[in-house]
Design brief:
Elements: H1 12-34, H2 41-45, H3 48-62, E1 66-67, H4 70-86, H5 90-98, H6 104-129, H7 140-160, H8 169-189, H9 201-207, E2 215-216, H10 217-233, H11 244-271, H12 274-278, H13 287-294, H14 296-305, H15 317-333, H16 339-351, E3 354-360, H17 370-374, H18 381-385, E4 391-396, H19 404-413, H20 426-429, H21 438-443, E5 448-452, H22 462-469, E6 473-475, E7 485-486, E8 489-490, H23 492-505, E9 510-515, H24 544-572, E10 578-584, H25 591-598, H26 604-611, E11 613-620, E12 636-637, H27 638-649, H28 655-663, E13 667-671, E14 674-677, E15 682-683, H29 692-710
Parallel strand pairs: 1-2, 3-9, 3-10, 4-12, 5-6, 5-9
Antiparallel strand pairs: 4-11, 7-8, 10-11, 13-14, 14-15
Helix pairs in contact: 1-3, 1-4, 3-4, 4-10, 6-7, 6-8, 6-10, 7-8, 7-11, 8-10, 13-14, 15-28, 15-29, 19-27, 23-24, 28-29
Length: 711
């Protein structure tokens, strides 16, 4: 396989093959009609998927998206044409089977099961072949499980489709589709497709234009495999019933059989815990590692079975309430009783500052990567020079390269993905109407809660989730029509101007949430102005594409930094108290490759921990009582950031927020990837250590405040 893009001059090869297949099909139809034989719909329809796949490859080639050799293209085109033509052979085999006497039914059933089994094996292989370089190392038992699942689905659809192969094609297409999709997700985000991602297809479609969809030889081979499975299924067709009564009875019997198979599958899913039955455990920290080791389907099923929030071992509401009460008492006796906090409380009651939260898309300070720092990069200049913050530092997030909504959710609710489950997206899964959250909390204090995101309101189900959480207004894509664009969307400055507009029209206290879009991935060449493009080249990074993505991203951050400087300057000039909480939702997707290049051979915990470090600050345009505003440094988890900000400015806190802050004396930061103890050591969530009991306590308290209300 070559790593060079195939020239568009080769596009006629698949186009010609597609045209030849269509022509051959037309000839066969004409000859059949001339022989006064019946032309079945299948004779016309079965070759169409192959002609479509050939035409698709031609389109990809024209657009320079084929990352393989001309030889691969020729083999692909010939294989697809042969497979498509082979489906027409069913016309000649059918009469032979029809002439068989009483044993025809049994022969057909045996034939069908054999063809379904072979197609299932090929489909399971196709699912892995497209993306998993370690597919050949997947344990036989796990590949057999994948095949069994696909086969069972095919059998169910075979019966529901009245013993034809038409509906059985659906699992074949699904396997190939998921395989190719996983290939792209791995390229773009180094992540696995999770069950909850299926609920975010609208969001994925909305941002899909930001990526370059090049396919390699493995993808082409996977598609040929899918074609072979479809060709086999074309030879499955029902015999003609001898009487109307038998035909009607067969329809009912087939439907019952299909439903029964689906019922067995559903029962197995709900009663057999795959991790326990197969003796493995999927990596909740880095799921893609499990997918590569055990295969897509077993891993996907294991994650799906883990979607409900499990009740903590030994949990009961009364005990959880007592734990929370003890933490609240600890806060009231320490952090809540300091002169600084008391002074801030008195001031807040008088001034009620507007609170602005800006979650800046993919904003982070990559100077934390020593190799990049050594190459001269010192981070966003204005951001790092802002010296009068109430607090700033490292923000530990639960996501990397994507999953924006989960950082947003953690900030707004105080609930950590650590205790909900990695790979779950609460905005997509739960009704948030009854949970504690920042907009509802501030609304009760007389604030007007408003949110903005210059993208489709349906992304991450925000329109509904915001309404459930108490936001009064949501400004989305249509409210930013005609605004300046940079890289991936509306500029940060355009959203800041919208905030300033909202402040100008209403002098009452407001809570405004701004989710920016400008820095969204991908970071392909040519997506930022050439004259602004940085040129950092860390030692050890030799991949030209990675360097392009890195410098495109850093250029975006420079633009965001300029817009932030403008915004802070505008807020300084306002004659009203304003608090700004600014943070990045996650690092960009290419940092996984950057991390691997700069830190080879590092222990897993240290290596992965770096990927989930973002950054934040809490700033005010007025002198906050009890705070010297000298930019105190503190690492914190995204789920505790809002509580920390409210504490700093003297705002009233909920008992849950007090409990979170009290726990920080022992657990500095917590996310889905682990926590840092007061001893400075990083631990995984299930690690034994001096803070394990507090982790269990926090799990119980969150279950009381969140899971009990949404499960």
């Amino acid at each position: 396989m070559t790593d060079e893009i195939l020239s568009p001059t080769y596009a006629p090869i698949p186009y010609t093959a597609a045209a030849a297949l269509i022509a051959f099909t037309v000839v066969m139809v004409v000859r059949t009609r001339a022989a006064r034989e019946r032309v079945t719909p299948g004779m016309i329809l079965w070759p169409l998927p192959f002609a479509s796949l050939l035409a698709l490859m031609g389109v990809l080639c024209v657009n320079e998206l084929c990352l393989f050799s001309a030889k691969t293209l020729i083999v692909y085109s010939v294989a697809m044409e042969i497979l498509g033509a082979a489906t027409l052979a069913r016309t000649f085999v059918a009469p032979w089977l029809e002439r068989i006497g009483g044993g025809a039914h049994g022969i057909r059933l045996l034939r069908d099961l054999v063809l379904l089994a072979i197609a299932a094996i090929i489909s399971a292989w196709s699912l892995e072949a497209a993306w998993n370089e370690r597919a050949g190392q997947v344990p036989v038992a796990f590949f057999a499980l994948s095949t069994l699942v696909v086969f069972s689905l095919m059998v169910a659809l075979y019966f529901i489709g009245q013993r034809s192969g038409v509906l059985a094609v659906i699992p074949v297409v699904a396997c190939a589709g998921f395989g190719v999709a996983q290939y792209f997700i791995l390229q773009f985000k180094s992540a696995a497709i999770l069950p909850s991602d299926l609920l975010a297809l609208g969001t994925a479609a909305a941002v899909s234009g930001n990526y370059t969809y090049e396919i390699n030889t493995a993808v082409a081979e996977s598609l040929v495999g899918a074609g072979a499975a479809i060709a086999l299924l074309s030879f499955i067709w029902p015999g003609r019933p001898r009487t109307v009564v038998r035909g009607a009875a067969g329809v009912v019997g087939n439907l019952c059989a299909g439903v029964a198979v689906f019922g067995i599958l559903a029962g197995a899913f709900s009663t057999v815990k795959l991790e326990e039955a197969m003796g493995f455990e999927y990596d909740r920290w880095w799921p893609i590692a499990t997918y590569q080791t055990y295969g897509f389907l077993p891993s996907f099923i294991a994650v799906a079975q883990d979607l409900p929030i499990p009740e903590p071992e030994g949990y009961d509401d009364e005990t959880a309430a007592d734990i929370q009460a003890d933490l609240v008492a600890a806060y009231d006796a320490t952090l809540g009783a300091t002169p600084e906090r008391i002074a801030a409380e008195q001031q807040f009651a008088q001034v009620q500052p507007t609170i602005i939260a800006v979650m800046n898309e993919s904003f982070s300070d990559l100077s934390l990567y020593q190799g990049l720092f050594d190459a001269g990069y010192t981070g966003p200049a204005f951001y790092n020079s802002l010296g009068d913050t109430l607090q700033r530092g490292t923000l530990m997030t639960s996501v990397n390269g994507g999953g924006t909504a989960n950082s947003e959710f953690e900030f707004l609710t105080g609930d950590s993905i650590a205790f909900i489950g990695n790979g779950k997206y609460p905005y997509q899964l739960y009704n948030l109407s009854d949970i504690e959250c920042l907009p509802r909390q501030l609304e009760e204090l007389g604030y007007r809660a408003r949110a903005m995101h210059p993208q489709a309101p349906t992304n991450w189900n925000r329109a509904l989730s915001y309404k459930q959480m108490g936001f009064e207004e949501f400004y989305s894509m249509e409210d930013f029509e005609g605004e300046p664009q940079y890289h991936a969307g509306v500029t940060d400055r355009a959203t800041y101007d919208k905030i300033l507009e909202l402040l100008a029209e209403d002098d009452g206290p407001q809570f405004i949430l701004d989710i920016t879009m400008q820095n969204h991935s991908g970071y392909d060449a040519g997506t930022v102005p050439a004259e602004e493009l940085t040129s950092y080249a860390p030692a050890g990074v030799t991949d030209g594409e990675l360097l392009t993505q890195l410098n495109t991203y850093l250029t975006c951050i420079n633009a965001s930094d300029r817009d932030l400087a403008y915004f802070v300057d505008q807020l300084r000039q306002l004659d009203r108290p304003v608090v700004l909480v600014f943070f990045g939702d996650h690092q960009p997707n290419m940092t996984t490759s950057l991390n691997d290049a700069l830190y080879p051979g590092e222990d897993e915990l240290t290596h992965q921990w770096r990927l989930f470090q973002s950054t934040y600050f809490i700033w005010a345009n007025y002198d906050v009582a009890g705070n010297d505003q000298v930019s105190a440094q503190s690492e914190i988890g995204a789920s505790a950031l809002a509580a920390q900000a409210l504490h700093a400015i003297g705002a009233p806190l909920t008992d849950y927020q007090k409990a979170l802050l009290a726990s920080r004396s022992q657990i500095v930061s917590l996310s889905a990837n682990g926590y840092r103890g007061a001893d400075g050591v990083c631990y995984t969530l299930d690690a034994e250590g001096p803070y394990r009991s507090l982790v269990d306590d926090l799990r119980a308290v969150q279950y009381l405040n969140f899971a009990r209300k949404v499960n």
